[in-house]
Amino acid sequence: MSRKNGPVVAIDGTAGTGKSTVGKAAAQKLGYGFLSTGGLYRALAYSVFKKQIDPSDAEAVLAEAKSLCFVFQRQPDATLKMFVNGEYLGEQLHLDEVAQTASKVSTHAQARAVLTEKMRQVAKDGGIILEGRDIGTVVFPDAEVKIYLTAAPEVRAQRRLKQLLAQGLPADYTHILTSIKERDERDSTRAASPLRAAADACQIDTSDLNREQVIEAVVKEINKYVA
Ligand code: DC
């Protein structure tokens, strides 16, 4: 399929494999947009959390998903800045409670369908890298390029620990590792769009690679399509 602005590139994988950092850097190199689709689930979670809705209540979560109006603004650094009902939520979306709630609300198939449709709308003309869990399998099964990143949970926990400490935030390795494993388990065993690699995805294990090496591998994969 040929799209107006170039390919749709799907980057999927577990949390902490560097999907966001790498996807954004690759988008900058190639002049594409970049969207971290977990942001939509986090926005839904934030709203659910704030209104004290039970995240296991599928109908209430669906109603909340439908009530969210997403607007995306492409930034000079390739990212799509997301406004939810007119508000930019920024760092609030990265609180641990929000991440945990996101993993819970994302188990509901109908709420997922609402957010999936928003992702398809924003990316249908291509020239964009989407990072998530089910981009290559469900959101864009016809994506021109599909990449699946993996890394050992211990490596991902170390990376997260370093990030938090660098930001001067309190961090505990064991707690981070447990939280990563819990999310992996929930994301990959849920009935609706579980985390898994598309059969036609290029799999890259980032455990022993540095950031630059992963970016290089991803750009190389995209260039195979573009060339
Ligand atoms: O990538 P992230 O940590 O920002 O994602 C937050 C949660 O959203 C994560 O637990 C899984 C879920 N998610 C999803 O189910 N499908 C996506 N395409 C992206 C994220």
SSE layout:
Blueprint: E1 8-13, H1 19-30, E2 33-36, H2 38-50, H3 58-67, E3 70-74, E4 80-84, E5 87-88, H4 96-105, H5 109-123, E6 128-132, H6 135-139, E7 145-150, H7 153-166, H8 173-189, E8 202-205, H9 211-226
Parallel strand pairs: 1-6, 1-7, 2-6, 7-8
Antiparallel strand pairs: 3-4, 4-5
Helix pairs in contact: 1-9, 2-4, 3-5, 7-8
The structure holds 2'-deoxycytidine-5'-monophosphate (DC).
Residues 15, 37-38, 41-42, 99, 102-103, 106, 132-135, 183, 187 line the site of 2'-deoxycytidine-5'-monophosphate (DC).
Can you give a write-up of this model?
The chain has 227 residues and is an alpha/beta fold. It is built from nine helices and eight strands. The protein has a five-stranded parallel sheet with strand order 2-6-1-7-8. 2'-deoxycytidine-5'-monophosphate (DC) is lined by residues 15, 37-38, 41-42, 99, 102-103, 106, 132-135, 183, 187.
